[in-house]
Known about the structure:
CATH superfamily of the largest domain: Mur-like, catalytic domain
CATH topology of the largest domain: UDP-N-acetylmuramoyl-L-alanine:D-glutamate ligase
Largest sheet: 10 strands, mixed
Strand content: 25-35%
Strand order of the largest sheet: 8-7-9-6-12-13-14-15-16-17
Number of domains: 3
Number of strands: 23
Structural class: alpha/beta
Distance between the termini: 62 Å
Radius of gyration: 22 Å
Helix content: 25-40%
Amino acid sequence: MSEMQAAKHIHLIGICGTAMASLAGMLQLKGYRVTGSDMAAYPPMSDFLRELGIAVAEPFSQKNLEPAPDLVIVGNALSRGNAEVEYVLDRRLPFTSMAAITHDEFIAGHESLVVAGTHGKTTTTSMLAWIYEVASRRRAELVPSFLIGGIAENFGSSFQLRNGRIFIIEGDEYDTAFFDKGPKFMHYFPDALILTHVEFDHADIYRDLEAVQTAFKRLVNLVPGRGRIVAFDGTKNVTECVANAFCPVERYGFMAGSYWQLKDLVQREGHTTWSVLRGGEAWGSFTLPMAGEHNALNATAAAALAFGQGVELAAIEEALRTFASVKRRLEVKDVIDGVTIVDDFAHHPTAIRETLRALRASYAGARLWVVLEPRSNTLRRNVFERELVEALGLADEIILAGVFKQESIPEKERLHPEAILRGLQEAGHRAELHASANEIVDAIAPRLKKGDVVAILSNGGFDGIYEKLPSRLKEAMRVAP
């Protein structure tokens, strides 16, 4: 640790976002003095920062920047008008973005392995990092550093800094900052790339699917000729994005003729097994302690990239067999008197569909409840009403919450949950709408029975429902005769 690093104070505005909190921890490990601020600290990252001893001021205030830090990192959720952003600009304090400093401080000089795509990138990045961690037990030079948009259970962390040459990072297509509207992943300069899915998402910053594809095409264009791309074979959107790559492209999926082809997939009791053909020939057989066809695809992508970069098959098989998932991805929050409560980050109709399909496979015969808070910038808009009805229809009991901060969405763009409710009921599904988390708990807690599975879907805190529902069920157990 240099004297400059020891003395340098870096302040992160919007520190409780997953990536920002992780970056704060990484900067602290490098020896910087780190502070941060947010509108309101919220778990899991607020707990994570507390464990690291990083002070979080709330709410945003100019006072949080006094005395002035040496550098300010502005989160991508912040915009002009924020008190701290305005103070930084008025005082001409040095500032940068999370993506830019991640490249300059951590990726530069390393082999950059980037996982990108509309769906699956957090889980796939976690799998890839764990594969390299297991492989490093045999070959120390493979030990990875990584930055993931979620807490990888195998590590108990969303980041790791080690002395090896490998840096693995989740490549987010969301914009970088109010002063840099390009995708964050354009800062990461991949030596090798996984591209999982490409769909219309982030309706607040992309006008249509073509704009999303343009972003991914630009990422593909950054991979050098000596690099590799491992790309999903299941959609024409991905095919179009990799069509003009200057490096080898290896497709993975279920299609005959794909370089990495999944075969004989079986899901049983929360585990998935399958085999993979490589170039048409038998290559490996895998077991994953997770349900979901989408998770087998994620694992195959991670396995394919790692093997192509020199990781041994035996290490890949061991890593997938012992993979422990990611927080908020099909995470069992509690089991109370036979009722299983599951938390999932599902932020898009496709993600909702795959989550519910995975739960059907894991809990065959169970009555499946889905509780959805439309919170992501895409779900809060009316761009996927039909797809949302179809995805939610996979559950037996459907509970809709009010749209998060609906008033911040222009009227003509807003999702109206009443329309979703009407579509579900017209299709013959049992569906209800309740305005708040408290109302939802009041409505469903008395009706839950042993054997039920409740999937709570939100990309935010959902007003504490993850704690409120278990608490109500435990209270009912205590007072039951």
